[in-house]
């Protein structure tokens, strides 16, 4: 090996990386422990898909032809929206095989266009904030503890959310789920990358 000079900073970094790689090979490299840790971290990311895509099912909107006025069953589609908004129709009926926050709380016509996307917007705004917040928190207090806390908060908030009694409660509970989801994705990625080092 050649002697080091002041201009050799890049060489020293590569050499140090090479020494570390050789050390990993000597102690066993990517072993069973890393495999188990990686699988467990992967399993921790699975609920993120549930939290992210839940509104696709929980806030499913019936199509125009699937909503009718319960007092006048022949009033459907655009005529139903006009009757709903001017108050001549007081109760909606649905010909859909599912129940959602839209059908349970009668978030219909123009209200559905305004409020249903709000559930996703609130979630993703929380994700943006959570990625920043929990990046700092996980560096300060540790990734494992932060992971466990965010998973617990998401579980509790989603459990309560499933028993929401109105739209406001549903949207408010999407906030902590989004915040924790954003943070969890950030430091889970870092934790997985650290296993490869």
UniProtKB/TrEMBL annotation:
Domain Major facilitator superfamily (MFS) profile: 40-197
Record flagged with keyword Transmembrane helix: yes
Principal subcellular localization: membrane
Keyword Lipid biosynthesis: no
Locations listed in the record: Membrane
Example GO molecular function: transmembrane transporter activity
Membrane topology annotation: Multi-pass membrane protein
GO CC annotation terms, alphabetical: membrane
Top-rank lineage group of the source organism: Eukaryota
A Pfam family it matches: Sugar_tr
Keywords, in A-Z order: Membrane, Transmembrane, Transmembrane helix
Residue spans crossing the bilayer: 147-173
InterPro entries cross-referenced by the UniProt entry: MFS_dom (IPR020846), MFS_sugar_transport-like (IPR005828), MFS_trans_sf (IPR036259)
Protein name as catalogued: Major facilitator superfamily (MFS) profile domain-containing protein
Organism: Desmophyllum pertusum
């Amino acid at each position: 090996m050649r002697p080091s000079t002041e201009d050799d900073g890049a060489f020293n970094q590569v050499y140090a990386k090479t020494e570390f790689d050789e050390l990993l090979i000597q102690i066993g490299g990517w072993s069973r422990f890393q495999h188990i840790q990686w699988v467990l971290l992967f399993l921790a990311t699975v609920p993120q898909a549930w939290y992210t895509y839940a509104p696709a099912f929980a806030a499913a909107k019936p199509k125009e032809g699937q909503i009718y006025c319960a007092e006048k069953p022949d009033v459907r589609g655009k005529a139903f929206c006009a009757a709903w908004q001017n108050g001549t129709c007081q109760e909606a009926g649905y010909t859909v095989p599912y129940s959602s926050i839209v059908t349970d709380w009668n978030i219909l016509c123009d209200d559905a266009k305004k409020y249903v996307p709000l559930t996703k917007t609130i979630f993703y705004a929380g994700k943006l904030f959570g990625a920043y917040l929990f990046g700092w928190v996980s560096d300060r207090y540790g990734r494992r503890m932060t992971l466990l806390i965010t998973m617990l908060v998401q579980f509790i908030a989603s459990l309560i959310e499933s028993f929401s009694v109105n739209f406001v409660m549903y949207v408010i509970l999407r906030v902590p789920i989004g915040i924790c989801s954003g943070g969890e994705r950030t430091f889970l990625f870092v934790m997985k990358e650290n296993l490869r080092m």
